[in-house]
Amino acid sequence: MVSLSAAAVTTTTAATRFLPASTASATSLSYRSSLSLSSASARSSPLLSRLVHSQKSSLRRFSTGRIGYSTVSSPKCAASSPEQLKSAREDIKELLKTKFCHPILVRLGWHDAGTYNKNIEEWPQRGGANGSLRFEIELKHGANAGLVNALKLLQPIKDKYSSLTYADLFQLASATAIEEAGGPKIPMKYGRVDISEPEQCPEEGRLPDAGPPSPASHLRDVFYRMGLNDKEIVALSGAHTLGRSRPERSGWGKPETKYTKEGPGAPGGQSWTAQWLKFDNSYFKDIKEKIDEDLLVLPTDAVLFEDPQFKEYAEKYAVDQDAFFKDYAEAHAKLSNLGAKFDPTEGFSLDASQPEKFVAAKYSTGKSELSDAMKQKIRAEYEGFGGSPDKPLGSNYFLNIIIVIAVLALVTSLVMN
Ligand code: HEM
């Protein structure tokens, strides 16, 4: 049964209070509240059926050859194009301005990537950022309760761009949400390939529990399996500066607090911070103080100030937001790449300010990917004579060499005579 809590929330004051100034001022603050589904309802919801139907329609359109969709079940899950990703990013920004769905989009990206197991080499068995979370079987995992709402919000954007993969869309939406909430710029790359069948989804149980018997060792078990370290565990936990926990979804948190009873978005739940649509370091400040009954501290949050190794980072982030932003941006980018298969193999960036992608590998077609050490060596050799592996050398470069050799030969023959 779907519970549509569609109270038309007057959010003008609430949204202004929660959003970073830049977003709040640019936003029309009068809107209708969004959908809210309980985990049980999601399992049998018409909404989910509609999504599945929409995904199946994409397949039918592909197989009849009328529209070249590369979506959920298309035979070739090619990677996204940079132009379409950039347009999709603008659409996501608009979505954020009207739905205030930053937190759930971050959680969606994290739950798609966080199934990665570094001990499994094969793709997609290793899990990770491969778009598997669009399939009903994975959405039904207990840890993913409520995430069908995030998929529903993104599906129209997916339908609009024929080349966009779900894997890229989920990570694009998450990184854009962090940035739009006032967080750091994430050095993202794109080109993730989608899995094509629900049978390729990871088994249930790869994501962390909020209340395990030994929170520190549980976090290490789960995050080390993803190839992440203590610093990254603490930095990534800082994403809980955004959003709320809802008892009807995860079983954690209060039904509502003074910070959540008016939304924005569907009201209710318990947030970790007072301004739960603003990305900053208040998560670390608030869980350290633990003085506000209305703010949530999960056992896996509390342990960040109890375990000696975690504590070192948590204390630092509580007093130094710049350090938190720097480490968060790096850890988020790493998380977003876990388990992903990229096409092209090295992925590509959407922002010119980031280093140009390395293309020397294309000259070694048929050979395995060059190691990072080898790429660095080749780059250093190119740069040694003023070139770059990303750009072909100018033809006059070779002309200059010929002239130098000719002059040397002439000088030598004159000297000898
Ligand atoms: C460290 C282990 C983690 C545990 C045990 C955990 C657990 C939870 C739980 C229980 C919720 C509430 C879900 C609900 O009731 O709707 C939640 C929400 C959330 N989580 Fe985590 N989480 C963890 C790590 C992360 C990481 C690494 C990220 C992102 C990088 C993240 C981002 C979020 C966000 C943004 C929400 C709010 C979603 C919303 O408001 O709809 N979490 N998490």
Low-confidence stretches: 1-46, 57-77, 361-367
Structural class: mainly alpha
Strand and helix order: HHHHHHHHHHHEEHHHHHH
Strand content: under 5%
**Strand numbers in spatial order across the main sheet:** 1-2
Instruction: Give the distinct bound molecules.
Output: protoporphyrin IX containing FE
Radius of gyration: 25 Å
Largest sheet: 2 strands, antiparallel
Q: How many H/I helical runs?
A: 17
Number of strands: 2
Mean pLDDT: 82
**End-to-end separation:** 100 Å
The shape, in one word, is elongated
Residues in helices, as a percent range: 40-55%
Transmembrane segments: 397-416
Enzyme class: oxidoreductase
Protein name: L-ascorbate peroxidase 7, chloroplastic
Catalytic activity: 2 a phenolic donor + H2O2 = 2 a phenolic radical donor + 2 H2O; L-ascorbate + H2O2 = L-dehydroascorbate + 2 H2O
Topology:
Blueprint: H1 12-18, H2 21-25, H3 39-43, H4 46-63, H5 82-99, H6 102-113, H7 136-139, H8 148-160, H9 166-180, H10 215-225, H11 230-237, E1 244-245, E2 270-271, H12 282-289, H13 299-302, H14 308-319, H15 321-337, H16 372-384, H17 395-416
Antiparallel strand pairs: 1-2
Explain this structure:
One of its GO terms (molecular function) is L-ascorbate peroxidase activity. Belongs to the peroxidase family. Ascorbate peroxidase subfamily. Its EC number is 1.11.1.11. The chain crosses the membrane at residues 397-416. With 417 residues, this protein is an all-alpha fold. 46% of the residues lie in helices and 1% in strands. It has helices spanning 12-18, 21-25, 39-43, 46-63, 82-99, 102-113, 136-139, 148-160, 166-180, 215-225, 230-237, 282-289, 299-302, 308-319, 321-337, 372-384, 395-416; strands at 244-245, 270-271. The chain has a two-stranded antiparallel sheet with strand order 1-2. Helix 11 crosses helix 15. The radius of gyration is 25 Å and the shape is elongated. Residues 1-46, 57-77 and 361-367 have low confidence and may be disordered.
